[in-house]
Here is the input.
Amino acid sequence: MENANKLSWVALRSAVARCAGVNDKVAKQFLDALVEQLTQALEQHESVRINGLGTFRIQETAARKSVDVRTGEEITIPPYYRLSFVSDASLKKGIGFDNPTITPDSNPMRRLSEQADEIVGILADMGQHAYEPSETTEVTETEEEPVTEEEPAVEEETPVVEETPVVEEIPAIEDTPAVEETPVVNNEPAKTEKAPVVQATASETAIASPSSSYSYTYIPPTEPRTEEKTKEKKTKSWLVVGIVLVVVCVLLIAAYFVLQYKYSDWMNNLIEKSEAEQILEAEDGQENDTTEWEEIKLSHSNEQEVAEPAQDESAQQVHVQQDVPAQVQKPKKESVLTAPRSYKELITTEQMSAGNTLTLMAQKYYGNKDLWVFIYEANLGKIKSPTHIETGTSIRIPKLSEELMDMNNPDTKQLVRQLSSQYVKR
Amino acid sequence: MTTKVLSNLIAARIGMTKSQSETLLSSAVEVIVEALNEDKTVVIQNFGTLRVKERESREVMNPKTGEKRVTDPKRVITFAANQNLKQQVR
Here is the structure.
């Protein structure tokens, strides 16, 4: 064992860990950080006040003249800063550092007899309240127990369990300062084990109880501390309840929005499906010899208007050596948006360089960054993700029809948006 | 710097919650004070030492009234900074 008059750093650490209910590692981490933080603050000449302990402050010591002891020469001692500590006023008064009579090494018997007088007085007061004398006595006794039970508690769990409900009810009736102590009793049930004994003696003979309490009412100064603790605990429990409520509310709201979003998504899908079915039905209805592309176009009802330009355009496109479907999709003003696009005609191919993106390319070649989707489509085989393209990949930049590039057209806009959300999801 | 600021700074420094660092700080103070109350010397590594010293009674004079009296002996908490800290602060 270490020196009895010294609390070493290691002992301090484990005591703090025990007191705060955390493990040694956390306490060590905390205390190291505390020292670092204190040092840092004091280095910047900032005073630090720690509640209940005192204030660390940097004080300047002015330059002064002195005499070199050996030579008798006059010298000037330069100014310097030193660290001063002033203990908290509560330590000076509350704990009795200024009063040697209350120090722990003073005569314990004297203090006990004082306490006995006190308790007798309290009991006499309680004699006037005819009801519940035993319970109030118990409260006065339990006050001192957290202090007295320094050693590990003896195992007598059953009487404790029986007694605690009684203790719990007291705060509602009694208004004594002891009321705040009862939660402590509940939190540390093992410590209350002696209470029933005291209660029994107290209820039988009022004056006998103080004497029975001597054995474990030894150092009372820690009482206010435990009171504060329970107050903190009470406020904390309310805080916890509040936080839980808020979290539940937030979760509910989040769930609501998520559900709504999913529902609307689902509805959109349904609508799309039904539209597709309608188109298919329309196709079935018109059993023509036209190509698939034309069928879809026709389903959009403008048979005459669109059919003519289709022929014109396809005639032009033949010169450019294109597949028929690709040519056909361009002229159709509306079907160009709905038909699958095939990119045979290229403006150019570009090597993917670091820092380049599809959107930059789209901006470069089409003048609109939203049109990156078509570049992506034209390179589906080569690139998996539109956002992660390996450097050096040659990207084909397709030539787009004007309809596809016309972002003023709401249909095009919608198509581009739909495609981009579709590809980004992948 | 107050206790609260200190505990918040520590919390930020080691990434624990503010309330946790507050409890730790208050329990550290509690432990230290308890030890001092038992006349123990408290060593804070890399920082300094807190110890209780007795001040003997002495004769004092009230400068206004010229009244002389003897003070009660008392016990005070003293702090001695670690050499490193002294140099850092200087």
Notes: The mean pLDDT of chain A is 67.
